[in-house]
Design brief:
The protein is mainly α and 409 residues long. The chain has 18 helices and no strands. One of its GO terms (cellular component) is plasma membrane.
Amino acid sequence: MLNGLWLGFFVVAMVSALAQWLVGGNAGIFAAMVESIFAMAKLSVEVMVLLFGTLTLWLGFLRIAEKAGIVDWLAKALGPLFRRLMPEVPAGHPAIGLITLNFAANGLGLDNAATPIGLKAMKALQELNPLPTTASNAQILFLVLNASSLTLLPVTIFMYRAQQGAADPTLVFLPILLATSASTLVGLLSVAVMQRLRLWDPVVLAYLIPGALMLGGFMALLATLSATALAGLSSILGNLTLFGLIMLFLLIGALRKVKVYEAFVEGAKEGFDVAKNLLPYLVAMLCAVGVLRASGALDFGLEGIRHVVAWTGMDTRFVDALPTAMVKPFSGSAARAMLIETMQTQGVDSFPALVAATIQGSTETTFYVLAVYFGSVGIQRARHAVGCALLAEFAGVVAAISVCYWFFG
């Protein structure tokens, strides 16, 4: 699937360039495409330098959290909830701890670091699967929650915005938090309907109702603020949460007698290994997207969508962010490339770039997650996983666009 997507970018770009040359007489289109390839290759390395630091930094702090027992505490705290949502998983099973750690990495926006942990969790759930080639209910719920993008602190989005020169990289903190809440809620509800999960169970309600009330109250508070005040609050909370989490990990680690520096270095080494493997994918996708833009094909497609949207009477500013939304279900690296390209062409703090960043932070690579997670344990029948995951993805995109109009419109 990814192979076809990548090849398709170049084929579409070639067809568009030939049309511009033969029909429009633009002989310089090929020079622009070649120049774009080298420019994007250079940009890939520049982005990777900061990505090295970001992944290394956060995996270091995550290792401190592991050694301090924070992850184990979370597993125990969430144990009663998971026992209701995944009744076939026995209490104290290693899968619960791995699922919790995976959600923690996803919550920090470390999607690339979360994948190896998620694969371990899927294998642990496979040990309990009575039908090895068919996805179990627990595996489907785990995958759909992953596909709904449980991002509470999107540090990699902050990193991309910082690399592109944003004055305040954390400006999209609250929009992403609200949009990812919508996608996760839709994902959970869709699986609950398909699996007939008892969400009205007193234990489940004890977890969900306080969270829903807090989110509802928070949104009611936000509704009283102006767009300027909303942007300012998002910035303050983003930076405060980011630094507060670092201090929490360090202080609890110190109180638990963890050698925080050594633990950080140990985790950081893993981050370096994860990051260095991403460069080939980033170069491949950024160059393909650059060629697509330089050929005029991307602009042509977006103009068509923009005319349709304008015909309905809707505002069209979000249309330039749609490339990120359209490729995100298939490839995280392609969506990342689309996001960076939108920031470069539209401006890092432009409305389309803010929408694209929010979409990137509140959606997941649905088909990639399905292929990798289920493929790693030999599952061939996904049952209702695809439909529920795509529904959560769609909810995340719609919520991201709506929230950005609320905050930045």
